[in-house]
Amino acid sequence: MENTIKVQPLRYTENSMLWSKLFIPTLRENPAEAEVVSHQLLLRGGYIRQLGAGIYSYLFLAQRSLLKITAIVRQEMDAIGAQEMLLPALNPAEIWQESGRWDIMGDNMFRLRDRFGRDLCLGMTHEEVMTSIARGELRSYKQLPQIWYQIQTKFRDELRPKSGLLRVRQFIMKDSYSFDIDAAGLDVSYDKHYEAYCKTFDRCGLQYSVVEAHSGAMGGSQSHEFMVASDAGEDYVVRCPGCKYAANLEKAGSRATPPLAADPEGDFSPEPFHTPGQKTIDDLSKFTGLPESSQMKSLVLIADGKPVLALVRGDHSLSETKFSSAIQAIEFRPAHPEEIRDLFGAEAGSLGPVGVKNMRVIADEALQGRRNMIAGANKDDYHLRHVTPGEDFEPEYFDLRAVAAGDACLVCGTALELIKCVEIGHIFKLGYRYSETMGLRVLNEAGEEVKVIMGSYGIGVERILSAAIELYHDKDGMALPPAIAPFDVVVTPVNYSDAAQRTAAEEIYEDCRKVDLDVLLDDRDERPGVKFKDADLIGIPWRITVGKKLAQGQVEVVDRRTKKSEDVAKEYAAAFVAAQIAK
RNA sequence: CGGGCCGUGGCGCAGCCUGGCUAGCGCGCUUGCUUGGGGUGCAAGAGGUCCCGGGUUCAAAUCCCGGCGGCCCGACCA
Fold it and tell me: Poorest-confidence range of A86-90, A182-186, A336-340, A533-537?
């Protein structure tokens, strides 16, 4: 056994990393289709090529980077006792039908049929498969807890793939699943993941924040997302500059802002008035001279096939997520204009809660205690004044309002910020949803059959790379963190036809390999400018430039991020870089 | 699904409106020389189903119809 192969090597130090022999197709110009920076640089840097909408090939550099990322992920997962598996991406319909998600996933799921006409799908996530394994094998509380994970390709037929690798139809995900005997056990598994994720993202060199996330309509109790601030992102995070509060916009709460004007006092009854052509809140506000906060916004949604009237204050917006958890809906959508006409006998611009009987009426908490407001009259071109919740109609109250920037923090009252983010990880207490629908039970200490409680946890591998580029780039290209850059260091002889420089560069290259650096030798017969530009573009953290100073036995070590250069004796260049990276 | 834009050598584009020489430019690529500290310069080359199909026409990259593909915006905001 002289060749011991480590299961998960972190460094990939191959023998002959000569630029002239490698496939690194850099581009001078930005391909027209790329709009976000990470997409542009991944294409220009020769990391990726597009095959179709939301489908990318990962070339040599991207693959190296992704291997480094997954190596870190593996180490941190292994460190919490998680066991790596690999489940099939091709799934039979049955398990998805059992959990009920065959229908719920809708058009986001890639579906196919085999030669016998059986339904199959490509896995978007693996709760079903994991649960089906667990239920076949786990029998006793003594086998718990278990944490199982995989790093695998997921398929999602996105409505609109976009932004390079940020939203795609096929991507690599680390997904793990925990199985525990009780809620306290789940807490432990959850916290382990929380820690492991922090370590993983720290090691990947990302700046990120952990935010409270929406835990779904399915009874999940807790959820956090790991977010990297970026304009290329699609999620909004609410953050308080005053305290540590941070949450996904979907979930975030804030103190009710006071209405912009006091409600009229008095015991009035609703009274219709003519509002020709006044359809929007803004229209009405101008028409009546009253602020938007004096109105009730009436939204009609069809939830699990039934209409629901949701009311928020005129200047507030409905949070879809809060709505769906409030009414425990599996699926919902805004009502079509014809449905609104059928239900209310009026157009969307003139709807209100008074006299509505045939559906659930829910209202945001900010309407509780208000008096004599304005609402639609359910008659085209008419509205009602003097509408008082609790008297003129009886709603169920929930927190339904989406937080807006500037709202007061629930915790400390400071004005909240809204930040655009890329989601790189998500941890989630699932509860009993899958063990219940799919029958995963074990015997407890008392010999009773109990459901297993589950958690699920995901990391978007390509998103780590994309987010890092979004975070760390300049006009010359990427400036990747060393841990995830495809190489640690590039050795660049300025003039490759100069025999002394050439020899020295080769020596330094060997030195680097000896100290276990992931090194690339730019042995191309190119002008120095070309080599510098390319090295900067593909984002290698360190460059050792072998040039004129070689006459004095010196080479330059350049930091990609700061562009600062330091003269180092030729013999110490490799050690110097290794020391910098170790820092 | 709604709206907008686009499809011409590997990449970025012009040509299309107003149909007509051999389809052009820059970059990249090949060969030779040159240069050698931030995408050197010169010269000679290679490389094209103008997305696909149909139609109009003496003639289509160009006009018309139909497809396919890609990008962006929106899809609760009443």
Answer: A336-340
Average the pLDDT over A245-254 and give the result.
Answer: 80
CB A210 within 8 A of CB A191: no
Q: Closest Cα partner for A249 from A241, A240, A239, A237?
A: A237
- Can you tell me the distance from the alpha carbon of A143 to that of A223, in angstroms, rounded to the nearest whole number? 25
Tell which strand B nucleotides have any atom below 7 Å from a protein Cβ: 1, 6, 11-13, 26-28, 35-40, 69-78
Number of other CB atoms surrounding residue A170 within 10 Å: 20
Q: Between the CA of residue A256 and those of A299, A309, A316, A367, what are the distances in Å? A: 20, 21, 10, 10
Token pair recorded at residue A41:
């640089």
**A563 Rama sector, left if φ>0, alpha if ψ -120 to 50, beta otherwise:** left
Binning pLDDT at 50, 70 and 90, where does residue A513 land? very high
Residues 6 or more apart whose Cβ sits within 8 Å of residue A53: A161, A169
State both tokens at A349. Answer: 């611009």
User: Hunting for tokens 């056990």 — which residue is that?
Assistant: A185
Q: pLDDT value at position A15?
A: 61
Question: Using CA atoms, how far apart are residues A212 and A238, in angstroms rounded to an integer?
Answer: 10
Is residue A134 within 8 A of residue A146, CB to CB? The reply is yes
pLDDT digits 0-9 by tens, A128-137: 999 999 998 9
Question: Is the C-beta of residue A53 closer than 7 Å to nucleic acid chain B?
Answer: yes
Average pLDDT score over residue span A418-422 = 90
Exposed/middle/buried for A431, CB within 10 Å: 0-12, 13-18, 19+?
buried
Residue A8's pLDDT is what?
45
Kindly report the three-state secondary structure assignment for every residue of A442-488: EECCCCCEEECEEEEEEEEHHHHHHHHHHHCEECCEECCCCCCCCCC
Predicted pLDDT at A14: 56
- Counting residues of chain A whose pLDDT is more than 90, the rounded percentage is 56
Instruction: Determine the Cα–Cα distance for residues A26 and A19; give it in Å rounded to an integer.
Output: 12
Whether residue A461 has pLDDT greater than 60: yes
Q: How far apart are CA A351 and CA A374, in angstroms?
A: 11
pTM: 0.87
Mean pLDDT (whole number) for A195-210: 96
Residue A554, nucleotide of least CA–C1' distance: B37
A511 has pLDDT over 90: yes
Please check whether residue A207 is in contact with residue A484, taking contact to mean a CB–CB distance below 8 angstroms: no
Positions 401-420 in A, CB within 7 angstroms of strand B: 402
Q: How far is CA A568 from CA A289, A403, A503, A552, A557, in A?
A: 73, 54, 17, 10, 7
Per-residue tokens: A305: 């096939």
Does the nearest atom of strand B lie within 7 Å of A37's Cβ?
Answer: no
